[in-house]
Write a structure and sequence with these properties.
The chain is α/β, with parallel strands linked by helices and 700 residues long. It has 4 domains: 54 residues, ADC-like domains (N-terminal domain of TfIIb); 249 residues, Rossmann fold, CATH 3.40.50; 191 residues, Dimethylsulfoxide Reductase, domain 2 (3-Layer(aba) Sandwich), CATH 3.40.228; 124 residues, Barwin-like endoglucanases (Beta Barrel). It starts with a strand and ends in an 11-residue tail after the last strand. The structure holds iron/sulfur cluster. The site of iron/sulfur cluster (SF4) has 12 residues, from loops.
């Protein structure tokens, strides 16, 4: 190593459960090397291919480096440079003006998600700022809320689950709605280790033959949105054949007799086969192996939640480990997220008490409706976007774009790159990369708390989210003590909850990554005690009954499905799924030439029979459409979907797509059964040939 080189540890900021530790080499103030941390227990020395060349991104000449104001029509992306002083002054003036108007401060809407996952840069001073102002609150439900609520009804507060590091101990590993090999690659490597060392079987349950399904020992392929029915069919076989863990059911669950009666009566394998498209023999064999090959782990992920019945689907699958007693084993049970094990002091960090009582909550999946004035409350007159690219990632895209083009809407976008959303901004603020700011990181895929130092100076005039909200708060005349420095915020976030007791900023600065205080080995429900009202796993839930849900697991069909909506399916017969593309993370990286080259053109994977029926060949350009909108893609006959199903993996940027729209031109903004979640996959479409990608294509 050169004499002036130092090595620091940063943390991957992306919305990914692996939360990798990155070893960065700094020379003469510049980051010159980056690799996975070999000493981190989950990263184990490798980064995924998305992040392996993160330094290209940090030093990209496409970075936004100065504040700008719009000089052309909204959507064109024409801007001129301004000073921070002018940018902050303009924003503060417009916010004050809207807040003082008859519409009041609720006419201001923040919009963010987890483009950056850290506690400080994703959810601290931003929340305080908008709460203090009295702005509308944003319900951040685009990803995980449906399943989170469903899981919590069953397993309890904190959404606890199996120890991911113990996956290598398992005999049967089930990826349910999870493309683990691409979206949770460090867990996948442990699954592969279990296969090599213990002869474990890896099963993937997915309507799509994803890269994970491809590399699994067994692919079970239900029709989209029917996961709950499949799980109920598995339980039928398990109870019918006496494969349930009676001792565990008796001491650790509530409602086992009622669940047993329901599945035996209502979900025999032949009925389940009719709903799911999975044959009876597969249902029988899967149930037997799941019950008898222990420890078994079900990795539940987000795919199955993108349906109207997504919450109930997760709740239903979450019953299985209790029925078969897999929670008894270290590594066994279910794993949805580890985020609930972190006792960060979210209240202190975000100060919801600053928000006036009765402030409206806007569901982020309904941004289009909010901008169109279709939701209760005042019109949205000012929008502040950070850590997200809603013009590309939000559902019901035509409505979102129509709203973003409103001349009377004042839009601020804080970003690293000139995204589709930036093109609609009145004021653009340049954002720091993860190497240029401090942060505190939890994870939703492991149990380490991590520190991300500022390793290089911010490029150009870039500023972090926290810095900008401090500066805006000063302009607005808010109390300075509410907007302290990052160090104070980290100390507040660490609080003194049990899993973080003894974890201090000083220790984090010295050690980088510290395991939470959890028992060793960590098998959260081996003792049969659950953090639910009854203290047991709630197969029958009084709370659900009170909240208006079926208290027992059940199957809720998708809102758009040939079985439940034959009328709609007669016009739009194809069920379209839009999972992430391995080269991108949501829309992050979709502007990077290297990542785009790896991703190739937008594709729609179809069954051969569906392509033949429409006269389209492999590689041909087609239009995928429904009443909400359309996008263009190349047909890919990969054999990865059953007839009647198609997959368009994303998320491409609109302005870099042929036809200047992506898959979200077709996706709905309807909400899931629980948690106000997104229903991207309840999406019936039709597909027709077109002769070429079109004049706007920059990819063809
Ligand atoms: S696996 Fe996830 S956390 Fe790790 S580098 Fe890739 S995106 Fe980041």
């Amino acid at each position: 190593m050169a004499e002036d080189s130092t090595v620091v540890k940063n943390v991957c900021p992306l919305d990914c459960p692996d939360t990798c530790s990155m070893v960065v080499t700094i020379r003469s103030g510049a980051a010159v090397g980056l690799k996975g941390d070999p000493d981190h227990p989950f990263t184990r020395g490798f980064l995924c291919r998305k992040m392996a060349r993160y330094l290209d991104r940090v030093y990209s000449d496409r970075r936004l480096l100065n504040p700008m104001k719009r000089v052309g029509p909204k959507g064109e992306g024409r801007f001129e440079r301004i000073t921070w002083d002018e940018a902050l002054g303009t924003i503060a003036e417009r916010f004050r003006e809207v807040a003082a108007s008859p519409d009041g401060p609720q006419a201001i809407l923040p919009y963010s998600y987890y483009g950056t996952m850290g506690k400080i840069q994703a959810s601290s001073l931003d929340r305080r700022f908008f709460h203090r102002m009295g702005a509308s609150q944003l319900d951040r439900t685009i990803c995980a809320s449906a399943g989170g609520v469903g899981y919590e009804y069953t397993v309890g507060r904190g959404r606890l689950g199996a120890d991911p590091l113990a996956a290598a101990r398992c005999k049967l590993l089930v990826n349910w709605g999870s493309n683990t090999a691409n979206t949770n690659s460090h867990l996948w490597s442990l699954m592969v280790e279990a296969r090599k060392r213990r002869g474990a079987t890896i099963v993937t349950v997915d309507p799509y033959r994803s890269p994970t399904a491809e590399r699994s020992d067994w692919h079970v392929q239900p029709r989209p949105g029917t996961d709950a029915a499949l799980a109920l069919g598995l339980m039928h076989v398990i109870f019918r054949d006496g494969l349930e863990d009676r001792d565990y059911l008796e001491r650790a669950t509530v409602g086992a007799p009622r669940l047993r009666a329901r599945v035996l009566e209502e979900y025999p394998p032949d009925r389940v086969a009719g709903i799911t498209g999975v044959d009876v023999a597969t249902i029988e064999a899967f149930a037997r192996r799941l019950a008898t090959e222990q420890p078994s782990l079900i990795r539940l992920n987000y795919g199955m939640q993108r349906h109207h019945g997504g919450g109930m689907a997760v709740r239903t699958i979450a019953c299985l480990p209790a029925v078969i007693g897999s929670w008894r084993h270290h590594g066994g049970g279910a794993l949805l997220t580890t985020s609930g094990t972190y006792d960060f002091d979210a209240f202190r960090l975000t100060r919801p008490d600053l928000s006036p009582p009765g402030t409206r909550l806007v569901n982020m999946n309904q941004l289009g409706e909010a901008l169109a004035g279709e939701l209760p409350g005042p019109p949205v007159r000012a929008l502040y976007v950070y850590n997200s690219n809603p013009a590309a990632v939000a559902p019901n895209q035509a409505k979102v774009l129509q709203g973003l083009r409103r001349d009377d809407l004042f839009t601020v976008v804080h970003e690293l790159f000139p995204t589709d959303t930036v093109d609609h901004a009145d004021v653009v603020l340049p954002a720091t990369s993860q190497l240029e700011h401090v942060d505190l990181m939890g994870s939703y895929g492991h149990h380490e708390v991590m520190y991300n130092p500022r390793s290089i100076e911010p490029r150009g005039e870039c500023r972090s989210n926290a810095d900008v909200f401090r500066a805006l708060a000063a302009r607005m005349g808010f109390e300075p003590e509410l907007f302290p420095d990052d160090e104070t915020l980290i100390r507040e976030a660490l609080g003194d909850g049990p899993s973080l007791r003894g974890v201090t900023l000083e220790r984090l600065e010295a050690e980088g990554s510290i395991r939470l205080n959890l028992p060793e080995p960590y098998a959260p429900f081996a003792d049969g005690v659950f953090p639910t009202p009854s203290g047991k796993c709630e197969l029958y839930s009084e709370r659900m009954a009170r909240d208006g849900f079926d208290p027992l697991p059940t199957y809720i069909p998708p809102l758009e499905d040939p079985q439940s909506r034959p009328d709609l399916a007669s016009r739009y017969p194809i069920q379209l799924l839009s999972p992430p593309r391995p080269s991108f993370l949501n829309s992050t990286f979709a502007d990077s030439p290297r990542h785009r080259e790896a991703a190739g053109d937008p594709t729609v994977e179809m069954a051969d029979a569906d392509a033949r029926a429409r006269g389209v060949a492999d590689g041909a350009w087609v239009e995928v459409f429904n009443a909400r909108g359309s996008f263009r893609a190349r047909v890919a006959l990969t054999g990865a979907v059953r007839p009647g199903v198609a997959v368009a993996a994303g998320i491409y940027w609109n302005k870099l797509s042929p036809g200047r729209s992506n898959v979200n031109a077709t996706t709905p903004s309807a909400l899931s059964d629980m948690g106000g979640g997104a229903t991207f996959f309840d999406n019936l479409v039709e597909i027709r040939p077109i002769t070429e990608a079109g004049p706007d294509s920059s990819l063809s």
